[in-house]
């Protein structure tokens, strides 16, 4: 998909079309396995396109969501993803399709483990094929066992909070317009948004909370709902770091890139329903920042845990 962000802009975007576009994005097509790339464990290969995104690169959450779809389509029926770990190796080019080559590492009595590499064509004839993401994921049959969980903190209902479009209304900038009108996930901040200005309480702000769900209801199989959760989990993990440091998304000289991202699914959810994403940053050092997040449903149940480490730097003004 080679459209620019400006091509995607519409004075009256249709939320249903944007949400349906997310399903199309995550619903990969199976392709023939490349003989020169396959391993003895390779079981399938898939291909997906990209959606326009600010910065001219592929959104990391998109590649993770597509990788979840790829590995999930190779596991025995009845097994759902319970954990995944991704390394981001290079920025993706939205002008080229992404290929997902899946290796089966184990199929046991209850668990299946898969590895997937996301690759794109070389940028020139003398360069090798580029690997942009490496993921390992584990799937499990539904089983009974011991149970306990943390409960969701108190938070105002999402219906009474401003949408991103309302927060950014009147801001004439391509990135602001994209966030306000083109993201397929409805994100509503409980804590003050830091799109345009730092958190005034940065000295004491150790927790961030946002509500998230698909922009409009979608119909999709359970695997795609798991993929949507992976997609959406990558939108805000940098914000707790920025919040603690007294920075905003538009801080001059700010540079950020995800290094690795992990998710544990404790319960499986419908991505059409609101999820409360509670996040904090326990550490920043060495040009990297770490965030820890918990996703709760409206009933207060803990449905997933997320950790992410990213490169984050502020280039000094010259």
UniProtKB/TrEMBL annotation:
Keywords: Hydrolase. Coiled coil: none annotated. Residues 159-312 form the Acyl-CoA thioesterase-like C-terminal domain. Residues 52-140 form the Acyl-CoA thioesterase-like N-terminal HotDog domain. InterPro entries: ACOT8-like_C, Acyl-CoA_hotdog, Acyl_CoA_thio, HotDog_dom_sf, TesB_ACOT8-like_N. Transmembrane segments: none annotated. The keyword Hydrolase applies. Its EC number is 3.1.2.-. One of its GO terms (molecular function) is hydrolase activity. It holds the Pfam family 4HBT_3C. It is an enzyme of class 3 (hydrolase). CDD domains: Thioesterase_II_repeat1 (cd03444), Thioesterase_II_repeat2 (cd03445). Belongs to the C/M/P thioester hydrolase family. This is Acyl-CoA thioesterase-2. It comes from Brachybacterium sacelli. The lineage of its organism: Bacteria, Bacillati, Actinomycetota, Actinomycetes, Micrococcales.
